[in-house]
Amino acid sequence: MHLLKGIVIAFSMYSGIPMPRMEWKEEDMRYALCFFPLVGAVIGGFCYAWLRICEAAGIASLARSCVCAAIPLLIAGGIHMDGYMDTMDALHSHREKERRLEILKDSHIGAFAVIMTVIFELLYSSAISEISGWKMTAVFCTGFFLSRCMSGIALLTIGNARGNGTAYQFAGSAAAGKVRVVLFTMTAAALLFTAMIYPWAGAAAALISFGGYFLFRRMALKNFGGITGDLLGFYLILTELFFAILPAAFSLVLMRG
């Protein structure tokens, strides 16, 4: 029963998919992070179906890429994009650490949040438009699962900047050791799947996953003294961008080859 409630909590918190209403008890949250990547699996499934339908039906590239870029926002409910926007405002403020943390908590958005979100969506949609074939489409869609595996790992392995908030609550309630094992196992399985599709893509996906983690860890500790929920959203969004650029690049290489 606790595992079923953990699934409900994970999807209630990290997606816009309607879930049964229930009280969030600490014992029910112990394994909720294990199911966070399943939200990515749902997003990846919808994106894969849409891209394959477009390829079969000859739907124009603009509609294909724009709708696909919208799917993660619609299913995730924009929670991660909100964190990305807040983080961009905080980083571009060039203020001291305490002030950056205050900006993260501010519900208002600034010019840099808007500018960097527009840039993200342009890059993201452009990358999606270049993805072709079922193999590279599968690599792209696996990125939604992997990005959430790595975000969960970051939550459990990098200190919290504030010592409060939703991210702190999830990390504190989790059975950290067991959840880390599950998330690392899921990550390894997804990377193996990617490597089986296309070995070079598998190697690049591992670099994005673990290289990106260490870069994010360094940035978060240097600029904020740790992580917050907003910073994790920022990390997840950028990881998804690189998992769109990766198969786009390989698609172009394979087409020329």
Query: In total, how many beta strands?
Result: 0
Cα end-to-end separation: 52 Å
Radius of gyration: 18 Å
Specify the helix fraction band: over 70%
Question: Which strand-content bin applies to the residues?
Answer: under 5%
Q: What is the string of helix and strand elements?
A: HHHHHHHHHHH
Q: What about the largest sheet?
A: none
Count helical runs.
Answer: 11
Structural class: mainly alpha
Number of individual domains: 1
Spans of at least 5 consecutive residues whose pLDDT stays below 50 are none
Mean pLDDT across residues: 91
Query: Which descriptor suits the 3D outline?
Result: globular
Report what the structure shows.
The protein has one domain. The termini are far apart. α2 packs antiparallel against α3, α4 (79-92) runs antiparallel to α5 and α4 (79-92) crosses α6. The model has no long low-confidence stretch (mean pLDDT 91). With 257 residues, the chain is mainly α. The chain has helices at 2-14, 36-57, 61-76, 79-92, 97-105, 111-130, 133-157, 166-173, 176-197, 199-224, 229-256.
